[in-house]
Amino acid sequence: MKFSSTTRYLRAARLVLKLPTYARVVWGIERDPRTPIGLKAMLGAALAYVVLPIDIIPDAIPILGQADDLTVLLLVLDLFIQNAPADVRAEHTQRARNGTADLDRDLMKLRSLMGTRFDTIRDTLPEVLEKYGSLRQPDAVKRALASWRRRRSLPGPGEPAA
Fold first, then answer.
1. How do residues 144-158 score in pLDDT, each as one tens digit?
2. Tell me, what DSSP letter sits at residue 51?
């Protein structure tokens, strides 16, 4: 079956709209003490795979490098949700749908503790991720650390040179 580009965009848009619900389900299952530790470890390993620069297909290869990260993450998330105990999965799915998920409560607690700083971080997060997204590349990390070391070793205004 072949889909038109409009149909594909609509399907993608529906998926994007469901992402917050999926995040709430995964967050709830992950925090639930009834979830087996091995299942939690599998999720941790997948997240490490996405974050660390060591991949099956290096991220330096355009599109394919990022596609393998996304594929691994989606497959593990599916395994994680499907292999969670049925009662845990049902409970957290229901909570995510009706707005009583732990993630929502945790974010509200964090917001009450941080005040306007929470809003500032939330609003600037996309820019920060864009700016530092290249740090997944080993060479980018080395350059960023070298730059940071140089800035730290330079004398400040009014300070003598070392």
1. 777 777 777 766 566
2. H
- Banded model confidence at residue 89, pLDDT cuts 50, 70, 90: very high
Q: Is the separation of the CB atoms in 111 and 120 below 8 Å?
A: no
H helices present in the chain, as ranges = 5-31, 37-51, 64-83, 86-98, 102-114, 116-132, 138-153
The number of C-alpha atoms within 13 Å of 79 and in the hemisphere containing its C-beta is: 16
Burial class (CB in 10 A: 0-12, 13-18, 19+), 29: buried
Query: Residue 98 carries which DSSP code?
Result: H
- Hey, what are 42's tokens? 């599998």
- pTM, entire model: 0.54
DSSP class of residue 135?
G
Mean pLDDT for all residues in the chain = 77
How many angstroms from the chain centroid is the CA of residue 80?
Answer: 15
Closest C-alpha to 42, from 79, 71, 88, 70: 79
Name the token pair of 51: 């974050």
Quick one: how far is CA 111 from the chain centroid? 19
